[in-house]
């Protein structure tokens, strides 16, 4: 029943998130742990020519806290609270197995504030199954067995658009033939050149592993969907053959770091679930979310600073996912254009961070 241990601010977080059991003031333990880490690369192996696309079918950030939190031990440390210097009013949750996943408790808090019956809630899978938003992975150069050197790219998707009917969305069938359009922010100059490419990717013992410096994650907040960019992302999954060089991904786990400044600034793209405004500035939901974001930070955004006393300026992200064979489509604008709430007079996007009370930084 124990989902998390709250180190600081336990009473408030337990009350909001309804965690099964809470222990207060757990001693910090700064030592190396190997639990819930991702597997190392295999010995150097011959490359292959297998290539395939998969689209994420299900994505769970662990918002329902009683079920525990998916993710990794991102900082490689045992225990809780020793990775960085926390916010003075920190509400930092520690999960069993040294898993880092602050985003789960944050989303649970915000969902509790806006109400679980808010339209579409926080379940991005509703929007994925409707073909409104998605995440596409491209794997190139797989040799069909343990492979030390893959090329992997990630594309945020604006959905599955039906052809020849004026541009309407068509829910995916998950039969390998769904064509997922590419979000304009996921490609660079040139035909479908990926903006997000893995810095390292491999397969070891049937487990797919990909590491990204930056990575796009789809999310749902109330009535809106959008993409958050995270850093130092790790994905693992079991490769499931689907014939030929086609594969699905099962038992997927992801972990990443979401810098607080990036997270706060990105909220201006989303609508307030109550009044349709934007999550920035003086918006009441934003004014609830901002301190929650700052107080939940449990990592430094730079992994090289873990355990060295630097400030906590990022939230750990954890998730579980599955993915099915898919086809890559062309670049297509999203169904609803991202908002640009609280923009500066010259149109510069809203920016905020935990070091400022509020404002366009």
Written as H for each helix and E for each strand, in order along the chain, the element string is EHEEHHEEEEEEEEEHHEE
Percentage of β-strand residues: 25-35%
Rounded mean pLDDT score? 84
Number of helices: 5
Q: What's the N-to-C terminus distance?
A: 42 Å
What is the strand arrangement across the widest sheet? 2-4-5-9-10-11-12-13
Radius of gyration: 20 Å
Helix and strand content put the structural class at alpha+beta
Helix fraction bin: 10-25%
Residue stretches low in confidence (pLDDT < 50, at least 5 long) are: 1-29
- The 3D shape can be described as globular
* Structure summary, number of beta strands: 14
- Profile the largest sheet: 8 strands, antiparallel, barrel
Report on the structure:
This protein has about 350 residues and is of the alpha+beta class. It has a domain at about 45-70 and about 115-330. It has five helices and 14 strands. The protein has helices at about 10-15, 100-115, 125-130, 260-265, 285-295, and strands at about 5, 50-60, 95, 135-140, 150-160, 180, 185-190, 195, 195-205, 205-220, 225-240, 245-260, 315-325, 325-330. The strands form three sheets. Strands 2-4-5-9-10-11-12-13 form an eight-stranded antiparallel beta barrel. A hairpin with a 2-residue loop joins β9 (about 195-205) and β10. α2 runs antiparallel to α5. The radius of gyration is 20 Å and the shape is globular.
